[in-house]
Amino acid sequence: MAKTGSFLAKLSQREKRFLFVGGALIALILLYLYLIDPIRQRTAQLDQLIPKQEEAIKTLSSLSEEYRFLSTQIKAIESRMPEKNQFSPLSYLEDVARQNDVRDKISYIRSMVPVPQALYQEIPMEVKMEDISLSRIVPYLSTLENAPYFLRVKRLNIKTRYADPEKLDVIFVVSSYEKMNP
If you classify domain 89-179 with CATH, what class do you get? Predict the structure, then answer.
């Protein structure tokens, strides 16, 4: 400290001012390089992120709305899904056929291999109807689609008969679903 004091004492007033201005200039440059510029760069980066984050929030909001919508649909479907062994799709198909007066047109109703899923089991049934008019098959299929239990027509194959084009041969797969026991 004594050396610094003797060094400054030897300098003229002009040299002291020059040294002070140079030191202040170096301090300002260091302040800019190590404090102001990094803050400015970080602010610019954050300004660029704002639109991306706003878009992400919009996406998250729309996904949230879609999740709520799908969640209510799942609850509605699950409310129509019977517990295991509470519903017989075969007897239901026959009852609906009898109600729609198409029982005599059914060639067969065949059970297919059940497809287990995580929370439910799909039970497909193949139905073949022969020599039936379109005006009789549509109400039958509509009744199946609007059943109290969750049924879904998964595949539908309609062919016109060669002898009478007004009559149809229909093969379709109806799947019923039941909850799996946890």
Answer: alpha beta
